[in-house]
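[job 0412] stage=fold_complex status=start
inputs:
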Amino acid sequence: MQSLRYFYPELTLIVAMLLVVIADISFKRLRSVLNPLLTIVSLLLAAYFTAYINHSQEANLFLGMLALDSFAQFFKLFLLLAAFLVVLGSLQSEELSQVHQGEFFALLLAVTLGMLLMANSINLAILYLSLELVSLTSYIMVGYLKGDRLSNEASLKYILFGAISTGSMLYGFSLIYGMTGSLNLYTIRDAFLSQGVQGFDQFTTLLALVLALAGFGFKTALVPFHFWCPDVYAGAPTPVTAFLSVAPKAAGFGILVRFFFSGMTQTTGSEWGLVNGINWPLVLIGISVLTMTLGNVAALTQNNLKRMLAYSSIAQAGYILMGSVVLTGEGLKSMLIYLFVYLFMNLGAFLVVTIIYNSDKSFEIGDYNGMFKRSPFLAFAMGVFMLSLTGIPPFAGFLGKLYVFLAVIEKGLIWFAVVGTLNAALAAFYYMRVIKAMVLEEGNGNVAPLQVSFLNQALLVALLIPNLLLVFFWNPIDRWTASSARLFGGL
Amino acid sequence: MITLSHYLLISAALFSLGIMGVLTRKNAVNVLMGIELILNSANINLVAFSRYSSNGIDGQMFAIIVIVVAASEVAVALAMVLTMYRLLRTVNLDQADTLKPTCKVCATSIPN
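[job 0412] stage=fold_complex status=done
writing structure:
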């Protein structure tokens, strides 16, 4: 019962989820106002509780099921912010307004709840349960447009891929449970430490880890597990795509770090050492290189902007993963910073896509021609988001890339940083293509100015400000992420 | 005498069969059955490990959680398959290819 005091953010979301469902069936006239309002208020309230609860004491909740540390606090605030921005961005989406929206908000709250649990689970059972909560609800959100063939197909592909990946992950978990006799990540580490290499077959350990990685890789869209990503992103309603590309990805990185760092490493001074000679960073380095390269190369040939952004988000996952393989506090910090800036630039890009689809009903890059004449503000905003995603200096994306590459270089993996930089250069090509279409190309005759509603304008400005100004305020972010990365007694 | 290895062998076989079923079947419902095999192979592992070691009943508890989650997963998946049937009049996964990037050259040269 002591733990309940620290469970307020999650409880808020549970209550709000039920309230949204009730409000949806009982207030027929007010529900279009009431549902988003309830959702927004509950997300803000949950964020308030998360910020208010003291996370620095590193306690365990519910008999070692959930962790209470600043790492979890960072991810919770991040995920709540992402959900908040996506709710605002979805309010005026034409795609979603054609169908009844009541369940949408309830589902969104359910996903957010699952992600919050994901971010602080330290028990394999809770980890699996929360991951499935996120997956199941996001399958429904992707297939939300019932009569739409694309939406249905995307959802079906998502659910089949997801079920196979999480099934494999579960098999890996069962092997780990068999080897160590525990589901708690800290006990697992102790078991690995105490019994040494000879107690366990190296091959079985590696097999279990690779199988477990299938689940995390699926959530974060890393390369051998990325096949669902372009189709799902292209078929899902755009606000849902925006959400999927940021929030579950971040939560996936959260549990990936938790699983590998608290389960498979021991602290030695400022660095983490490998437990039991399981060289998982090497596996992750390979995956990271593959993810970046494949994502960037495949994005070059895409004509559908949503598909292009899907491949771009795969590539971004590769950069983010770079930070987690160097086994230093700096690396972990760089990963958090990258995730933080990625939130603003990617949500911004998808918001522009949503707004343009509202009036033009197209996702083709060719139809973005001449957008600068029709709405200079929109073209400017998209330009900033694209340059930020590329990592051009004055914008926030540069900060993320700088930290990640620095962490890798400090560890001595120069070639790894070179691969990352080459990839960033490659990525510039397709990001610039969007800007070129919007600014330089002649339009196809459609010169009617594109109206952007006040809410969307405000939201765009809110997303532009961090992209433009975050570079000048890197110091507080640096301190915040550093304190969040100080988990498990390291750093 | 049945030992832990027997259970592990069975679960490994089930897991492989499940993966094979998922990879080779075209019918969406058959793929879902393959997924069930994968999940249940993990369940057998968990229960067997929990039974043959003296570490409490964590594994059996986990298996029950997995059973519940698998049921809800199949509920959602079947709903999607039903919707697919309503829209396309088939549950053959090969026909779900609308999202493939359209190649403009092929679309014009091959009349369909």
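[job 0412] summary: The two ends of chain B are 63 Å apart (CA to CA).
[job 0412] exit 0
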